[in-house]
């Protein structure tokens, strides 16, 4: 497989205390283990992304899962598409799908619960004033991978598209990280 690992530019760990959530698993001492969320993805996941590199960031996610597993219930969210869809990346939808599956299954094998996330919409409007759904193939593929492998998913692409259509272009650009950046928040 051709790994999209170089595109795993960003990962951030967020520890959330969900002590009141009754459905969380218990540790060996019978105590609830709070959730630990690890976010893997491109720079739409976290803007402090290093912008590429040798792929060490996914290894950090896996290490973080391993290190947290005795005390936490680890979840790994996985969101790609923005970089992978660029022609220069030369990654087909089939390769994109295979990559997502491999990352999710590796997270699962390490003991985490993977959650695939469809890519955040760009804030790019067409002349009808509606979002140009240029990540539709990646959204579709992400959902297909999730469904066919029994992996949970969050349809962030649909949710963000719906939201951006409702607020319109003028308000949408107020989310720009900097002038002209219609992708990052
Ligand atoms: C694009 O990827 C395909 C399949 O991996 C490969 O055969 C081809 O040489 C690549 N093209 C470029 C320009 O790198
Ligand atoms: C704008 O995008 C919407 C949603 O994809 C589409 O239904 C509509 O036809 C598009 N309008 C133009 C002018 O392309
Ligand atoms: C969604 O993915 C499936 C399976 O890969 C494919 O058959 C279908 O044409 C895709 N639909 C769209 C709208 O991309």
From TrEMBL:
- Asked if the keyword Coiled coil belongs to this entry, the reply reads yes
Q: Does the keyword Mitochondrion apply?
A: no
List GO molecular-function terms, semicolon-separated: hydrolase activity
Tell me the leader sequence span.
1-21
Q: Which SUPFAM superfamilies match?
A: SGNH hydrolase (SSF52266)
Q: Which InterPro entries match?
A: RhgT-like (IPR037459), SGNH_hydro_sf (IPR036514)
From the UniProt record, list the coiled-coil ranges.
86-113
Alphabetically ordered keywords of this record: Coiled coil, Signal
Annotated Gene3D superfamilies: SGNH hydrolase
Protein's UniProt name = Carbohydrate esterase family 12 protein
């Amino acid at each position: 497989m051709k790994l999209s690992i170089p595109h795993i530019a960003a990962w951030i760990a967020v520890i959330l205390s969900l002590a009141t959530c009754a459905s969380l698993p218990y540790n060996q001492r019978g105590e609830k283990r709070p959730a630990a969320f690890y976010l893997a993805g491109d720079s739409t996941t976290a803007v402090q992304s290093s912008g590429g590199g040798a792929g060490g960031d996914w290894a950090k996610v896996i290490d973080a899962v391993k290190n947290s597993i005795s005390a936490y219930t680890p979840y790994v969210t996985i969101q790609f598409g923005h970089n992978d869809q660029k022609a220069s990346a030369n990654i087909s939808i089939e390769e994109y799908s295979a990559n997502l599956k491999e990352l999710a299954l590796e997270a699962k094998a390490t003991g985490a619960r993977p959650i695939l996330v469809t890519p955040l919409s760009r804030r790019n409007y067409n002349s009808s004033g509606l979002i140009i759904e240029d990540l539709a193939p990646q959204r579709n593929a992400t959902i297909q991978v999730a469904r066919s492998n029994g992996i949970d998913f969050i349809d962030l692409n649909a949710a963000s598209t719906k939201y951006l259509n409702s607020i319109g272009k003028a308000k949408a650009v107020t989310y720009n990280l900097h002038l002209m950046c219609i992708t990052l928040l």
